[in-house]
UniProtKB/TrEMBL annotation:
This is Glyoxylase-like metal-dependent hydrolase (Beta-lactamase superfamily II). Gene3D superfamilies: Ribonuclease Z/Hydroxyacylglutathione hydrolase-like (3.60.15.10). Residues 44-269 form the Metallo-beta-lactamase domain. Keywords: Hydrolase, Metal-binding, Zinc. The keyword Hydrolase applies. It comes from Amycolatopsis jiangsuensis. GO terms for molecular function: hydrolase activity; metal ion binding. Its cofactor is Zn(2+). SUPFAM superfamilies: Metallo-hydrolase/oxidoreductase. Belongs to the metallo-beta-lactamase superfamily.
């Protein structure tokens, strides 16, 4: 069976250091992450709504919530996040809240019985408290690491952001492998939503392969920040958990991308032309043949057959014209 529709949901945006996205080959460190206040970029935050014939609306990630965005210091008080992150880390216009985005598709949070979370970072679980009734599916390694401390201080899963969840459903990857993956988890047993282990960005980061009619959509969360991060040796994000596992996961995604000729990749924060085009194209819940062809042509123009990046597309930081700290990526 295939999933019937996939809708990207824009849930605000976040301000991140350029090095967090693109400094991984220069060993951009957590100290630079905290101290660099001159090279920010703003990137969108996305969750994904999948319509499944039998399960109804299924969410992949939940984005941020209004308290994280509007009361940042209060939300993170008592945690190092209050100091490590700027007060304007998140922006969430009312019309982009999860409730508003679901309403656009005719749903209330109570209608969502299944939520998959790719990983426990705050910009993916901030609206989880809207879904206390739902089953929350995630990789077992991520679930088991939920209380482990990053920087020796804060648990991987910020307690306030997950306190409402009642039905954790850790998954094991015991179904057959696909592409470069040794195993998978067929979420509903019908082949429509296939979870794949892509650890490294966090201990148990999980990607979701959505099988559509005639094409496939991979939702890697932050296993890679943009489509260009497929070029592992030219474009690499800051390493946040395990650099070896991170690189291994990207290689497996490359293999999957090669094995499924009609696969497109929609990361959570893709601010490139590819991400923008695909999300606009999927506003109706699917991809036309023309848009699929556009995506494949963009990929061919961007990567060689072994995923080296076209040098003309190498990202670089462009400072703001007004001299402010928030620039852009060219
Ligand atoms: Zn993220």
């Amino acid at each position: 069976m295939t999933a019937s529709k996939v809708f990207p949901l824009r849930i605000g945006r976040t301000k991140v250091p350029y090095g967090q996205f693109y400094g991984g080959l220069g060993d951009f460190s957590i100290a630079e992450f905290a101290e660099d206040k001159d090279h920010f970029i703003r990137v969108p935050i996305h969750a994904f709504l999948i319509e499944h014939a039998e399960r109804g609306p299924v969410l992949v990630d939940t984005g941020i919530g209004p308290e994280q965005a509007g009361e940042h210091a209060r939300y993170y008080r008592g945690s190092i996040m209050e100091y490590l992150m700027d007060d304007d880390e998140y922006e969430l216009p009312a019309g982009e809240r999860m409730e508003a985005q679901l309403a656009r598709h005719g749903y209330r949070p109570a209608d969502v019985q299944d939520v998959v979370i790719t990983h426990f970072h705050e910009d993916h679980i901030g609206a989880l408290n809207l879904f206390p009734h739902a089953q929350v599916h995630l990789g077992r390694a991520e679930y088991e690491a939920r209380n482990t401390k990053a920087l020796g201080l804060i648990p991987l899963a910020y307690p306030r952001s997950i306190e409402a969840v009642r039905h954790w459903r850790p998954v094991d990857f015991t179904d057959p492998g696909i592409g470069g993956f040794d195993g998978s988890a067929d979420l509903f047993g019908d082949g429509s939503l296939v979870l794949l282990p892509t650890p490294g960005h966090s201990p148990g980061s999980t990607s979701v392969l959505v099988r559509m009619d005639g094409y496939d959509v991979l939702l890697p969360g932050d296993a890679m920040y943009t489509i260009q991060h497929l070029a592992l040796d030219q474009v690499r994000q800051m390493q946040t958990a395990d650099a070896g596992l991170f690189a291994d996961s990207i290689r497996r995604i490359q293999w999957l991308h090669r094995a499924l000729p009609n696969l497109v990749v929609l990361t959570s924060h893709d601010h490139t032309r590819y991400g923008e085009h695909l999300r606009a194209a999927m506003a109706g819940g699917g991809l036309s043949e023309a848009d699929l062809a556009w995506a494949k042509a963009w990929e061919r123009d961007t990567f060689d057959p072994v995923y080296n990046l076209n040098p003309a597309k190498l990202p670089r930081f462009v400072p703001a014209a007004d001299g402010g700290p928030v620039g852009q990526v060219a």
